[in-house]
Predict the structure of Holin, phage phi LC3 family.
Amino acid sequence: MKNINLKVRLKNPVFLIQIILAVLTPVLAYAGLRAEDITTWSTLMKLLINAFKNPYVLSLVFISVFNAINDPTTPGLKDKRLDENCN
């Protein structure tokens, strides 16, 4: 992950939304819930805690986050040269 410029990506709201959705989507799907079913912060926290206790759900989240981070236009797991040099 040293070839990925997370400093630049974390400034991009689209990337942040991708990561949030990459975590929430598999968790909600596994629990059989929709976003509108989460109406309190405590419900969300319980859902996330239970999800992180489950190795299967963790693997789904890992794969989903990996897909959000990976740049399919470059070989391997890295950013384009231009993106690596941005600050």
Observations:
- The chain has one domain: 6-73.
